[in-house]
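Shipment paperwork, digital attachment
Item: protein structure file
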Amino acid sequence: MDNYCYDNIALNQLIRKEKNARMRLKLLAVQHFQDGKSRYKIASYLKVSRTSVNRWISNYLSHGLHGLEEKKHPGRPSCLSASQKEQLANYINNVNENTKVDKLRGGDIQSYIEREFDIKYEISNIYKILERLGYK
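Attachment content:
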């Protein structure tokens, strides 16, 4: 899949095998582009923005099929610093090791973060933080 120029037969095969709908759209855009269709017509036909088609075609021409792959979206940066996360992990480990009766719950950790770091998180985000720290 490193060739920068695919013939229609190869693209058709890729399109049929592709399970991701967004990638299928990108491959269809490339196929129409190679057939000589304008980017405006491709956008109209696929019902996507011309900006998207321009980006897909440019990425394909520059990087081949790898240019069409989705990039990882990093999301919003954490409010907790690395040292705060380390302190939180130490706190969780200490409480869990020294308490035989109950493990910490999300609300307990939410209160700890607010008390220690003056940062408020929704409970759903507490569980995301715990997962990133390696707790399941």
